[in-house]
């Protein structure tokens, strides 16, 4: 019977070629299985792991080696300090997506009591729920084309006690026809269909990752229709790939947006591009 320390050491070695953070993955998975935080595993490092738990842990490690994200194996992921349920029906929320939340809060102002927000392709509801947790009086609508994904978003809202959100099923702007918002946010699929990176992401829903041959198809569709769904001086915020900022800037320019700028994620890569619908400048005589 191995100790916790030995079990973690063996698991980290087994994951070495399959993960960028093998030790962390092993600790998160064993902690979930034993009902212990990572600090608890350290404190109990010399305690034995029961045979049944050791076998179950071996199965989790094998699944991780097969490409299953840790979040799917534990059933949860933290985003904006909120614990979210995640399943293979939704994309695993990434830390860099928190930049969308930060920018939305900045644009609407820290003292603005009310704001209408549309989160396109909401998935697990991560973006919408993060904003709702910070601004209880905002009117937030989350849209997704996948019924199972929308059910996960609703479940997360219930679990977090955030009931003031409107969840709608459909593609992009179809479920909000005629509606206008102060902020529109989207983390759409932006990986090109033939990108080799999709192989490493094969466990996650393809519909949330790849939109077409160039990866810009979803971004282009949103940019083309967003203006008719924004209030004057409203903002569109788009997450995109680290090499796509120039293309997204051109998309926004083409569709009448101004004050366009791209923002860097925590790795220093262009990750979010935004623009606004300011009224045209009027010349005075």
Describe this structure in words.
By secondary structure, the chain is an alpha/beta fold. It has two domains: 4-66, Helicase, Ruva Protein, domain 3; 87-276, 3-Layer(aba) Sandwich (Rossmann fold). It has helices at residues 4-15, 22-34, 38-43, 51-65, 70-74, 98-108, 126-134, 147-160, 197-200, 217-226, 245-254, and strands at residues 76-79, 82-85, 116-120, 139-144, 165-169, 181-186, 191-192, 210-212, 230-239, 258-264, 270-276. The strands form three sheets. Strands 5-4-3-6-9-11-10 form a seven-stranded mixed β-sheet, with helices on both faces. The chain has a two-stranded antiparallel ribbon with strand order 1-2. Strands 7-8 form a two-stranded parallel sheet. It is elongated and about 70 Å long. The model is unreliable at 281-285 (pLDDT under 50).
Q: Report the sheet-strand fraction.
A: 15-25%
Quickly count the domains. 2
Radius of gyration, taken over Cα atoms and rounded to an integer in Å: 21 Å
Per CATH, the superfamily of the largest domain is Vaccinia Virus protein VP39
CATH class of the largest domain: Alpha Beta
Helix content: 25-40%
Give, in spatial order, the strands making up the sheet with the most strands.
Answer: 5-4-3-6-9-11-10
Approximate shape: elongated
Largest sheet: 7 strands, mixed
């Amino acid at each position: 019977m191995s100790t916790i320390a030995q079990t973690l050491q063996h698991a980290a070695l087994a994951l070495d070629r399959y993960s960028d953070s093998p030790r962390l993955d092993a600790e998160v998975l064993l902690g979930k299985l034993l009902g212990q935080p990572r600090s608890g595993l350290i404190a109990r490092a010399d305690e034995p792991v029961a045979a049944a738990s050791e076998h179950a842990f071996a199965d989790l490690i094998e699944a991780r080696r097969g490409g299953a994200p840790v979040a799917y194996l534990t059933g949860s992921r933290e985003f904006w300090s909120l614990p979210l349920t995640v399943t293979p029906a939704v994309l695993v929320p990434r830390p860099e997506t928190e930049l969308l939340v930060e920018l939305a809060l900045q644009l609407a102002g820290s003292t603005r009591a009310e704001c209408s927000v549309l989160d396109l392709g909401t998935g697990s509801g991560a973006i919408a729920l993060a904003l709702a947790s910070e601004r209880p009086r905002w009117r937030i609508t989350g849209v997704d084309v996948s019924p199972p994904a929308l059910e996960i978003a609703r479940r997360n809202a219930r679990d977090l006690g955030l009931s003031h959100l409107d969840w709608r099923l459909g593609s992009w702007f179809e479920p909000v026809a005629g509606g206008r918002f102060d902020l529109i946010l989207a983390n759409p699929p932006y990986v090109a269909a033939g990108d080799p990176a999709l192989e490493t992401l094969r466990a996650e829903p393809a519909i949330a990752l790849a939109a077409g041959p160039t990866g810009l198809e979803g971004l282009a569709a949103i940019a083309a229709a967003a203006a008719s769904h924004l209030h004057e001086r409203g903002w569109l915020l788009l997450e995109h790939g680290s090499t796509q900022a120039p293309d997204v800037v051109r998309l926004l320019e083409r569709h009448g947006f101004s004050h366009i700028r791209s923002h860097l994620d925590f790795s220093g890569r262009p990750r979010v591009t935004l623009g606004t619908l300011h009224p045209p400048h009027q010349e005075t005589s």
